[in-house]
Protein: Polyprenyl synthetase family protein
Organism: Listeria rustica
Amino acid sequence: MQLHPMWDAYPNLQTDLKDVLTTIEKSIQIRDKQVEKNVKDLIHAGGKLLRPAYALLAAQIGPDHDRDRAIAVAGALEVLHMATLIHDDVVDDAPTRRGIPTIHSKYGRNYAVYTGDYLFCICFKILSSHANSVENIEFNSKNIEKILMGELDQMRMRYDINVTVRQYLSRISGKTAQLFALSTFSGASQSKATRFQVRNAWNIGHYLGMAFQIIDDVLDYTSSDDGLGKPVLNDVKQGVYTLPLIYAMQKHPSEFQPLLEKQLDMSDEDLEQLLVLIAKYKGVEQAFTLADKYTKKALREIKKLPAGAYRDQMYELTSSILKRNI
Amino acid sequence: MQLHPMWDAYPNLQTDLKDVLTTIEKSIQIRDKQVEKNVKDLIHAGGKLLRPAYALLAAQIGPDHDRDRAIAVAGALEVLHMATLIHDDVVDDAPTRRGIPTIHSKYGRNYAVYTGDYLFCICFKILSSHANSVENIEFNSKNIEKILMGELDQMRMRYDINVTVRQYLSRISGKTAQLFALSTFSGASQSKATRFQVRNAWNIGHYLGMAFQIIDDVLDYTSSDDGLGKPVLNDVKQGVYTLPLIYAMQKHPSEFQPLLEKQLDMSDEDLEQLLVLIAKYKGVEQAFTLADKYTKKALREIKKLPAGAYRDQMYELTSSILKRNI
C-alpha cells in the first residue's frame, strides 16, 4: 500500500492511515467488480488523506483514545470526501482525478452519480456502526448538509462578478473548512475530550481548512499542470471566482467587467489580460496574506491543546501543508 | 395542500400525510430560493406518498404509537425516495417528473446532483434526530446502500439479453422492495412491536414492493402516456429489460436477439415487432401472474398482524394499489 511520501516523517500516523485505507477497502463491495476496482484505485491513488490524519491526531486529545474507533471514523471522513469528489467530477466534467480517469469519464455519469451516492451511504454506515451516540450522527449529518450547501452556493455564484470576499469565505467555509472541522471535531469528541477542547479541535479544523482552500485557489492562478509554466485557471474558466480575483476586482471592477462578461467565450488573450490585472492589483499577495492569518489562527489553537507527541505532530503537519509552495 | 385523491378514502391517514409533507417542507432550506421552490413543488406535485403511508400504518402495530416520531420517520423515507428520484432523472435525462420539469432539466445536472445529495443528508438528519437508537440508523444506512446497489445493478445489466428472472427479481428487490420494506419495518420497530411482528412488517413491505414494481414495469408495455394508446416502452428503449420481456425471451431467445442487438438504433417497427413477440409468448400475462403471487403473499402477511382499524386500512390499501389497472 503506497501512501503519499509526506507521511514518511510520521511513522505512527503512517501505520494508522494504512489501517484507515484497509477499513475503507473492506467496507466497499460493489457487485460490478470493474467499478469496485476503480473506486479502490481511487482510494490508493495517493490522495493526501489529510482529513483522516487530522481525525486520528485529534482522537488523542482526550483521555479515552480508542484506536479502532478512531480509524473507523477517519475512514468514514475520507469516504465522504471521496463521495463529494466523485460528484464534483460529474459536475465539472473532469476527465481525470489523482491521475486516473474519473468514474464518470470511464463509466458514464450514471455510474458516477450512483457510486457517489453509494459512498455517502458507506460513510453513514461506518459512522453509525462506530458512533458513540445518536447525537453524534445527527451532528455529522447536519454538517454534511452544510458542506453540500457550500457546493450549491458555489454554483449559484458562478459568473457573478459582484461576488464579495464575505460570500467567498462563507462558500469555502461550507465546502472545505466544514469537513476539516468535522474531522478534528469527530476525533476529539470520541476521545472524551472536554467541551472546551472539542471546540478547540473544531476551530483548528476550521481555520486550517480555510487556509488550505485559499492556498488551493491561489495555486490555480500561479501553478501549472503541464510543466510549461502556464497557470491552470480552471476556476475562472468555469465561472468560479476565487479570492485573488475577487480582491483584485474590488480595486477597479470596471477593468475586469469587459473580460469576465465574455464568460465561456474568454480567449487565451483575455485570460492573459486577466492575469496581468490580478498582478497589477496584487490579488495573489492579498490572498496569501489572508491564508497566513488563518494558518496562524490554526497554529495558535493547536498550542492550546494538552501537550503531547500528537500535538507536536499536528503543529508540524499544519505548518508544512500550509506552506505556500505546496 | 393537495394530496392524491386516493387518500380521500382514508381520512386519518390523509391528515397524517399532510403533516408528513409539512415536516419535510420545514426541514428543507436551500439558500437558492428558486431551487428550494422547485424541490418543494416536487413534494407537492402529487406523488402518491405510498412509502410514508405504509410507515404510518405500520407504526400502529406495536403498543407504543408515537405519532410525532412516526410522522418524522415517514418524512425521512419520502425524502430519501425524492433523492433517488432526482438522481434517477439525472441518469435517465428525464425532462419531467410528476408533470413538472425535473431539477436537472431546469437548472442543469450540477444542481440536480447536489440537490439529491442534499436530500440524502436531510433524510439522515431527520432519521438521526428521531431515531430510537444508533442501531436503527445503522440498519437504515445499510438498507439505503442496498437500494443503491439495485440501481447500480440495473445499469450494469443494461442491454444484457441474457438477464435472468432471478437477476431481475434481485434488482427490483434492491431498487424498490427494499424501500417499501424499510418503511413498514421502520414504522413497526419504533412502535415497540415484537420481534416477530417487526419481521412480519418487513415482509409486507418487501412483498408489496415486489408486486408494485412488477406491475409498474408491465405498465411500460401496456399503457400509454399520450392518450394515443401506444405503449411507452421507456425501459426497453433505455436497455432496461423487465419481466414481460425476460419471460417472453426465455421462450425463444433467438427471435428477440436480432431486434435487441440494435440497442439504441431500434426503429418504431422494431419496437412494434417486439410487442408482437411479447404478446406471442405471453410475457405480460406471466408477469401479472407473478405480481399476483407477491400481492397474495403481502395480504397474507398483513392478516397475521394484530387486529385493528390500521390493519384493515393496510389490507384495503394494498389490494387497491396492486390492482392491475392502476
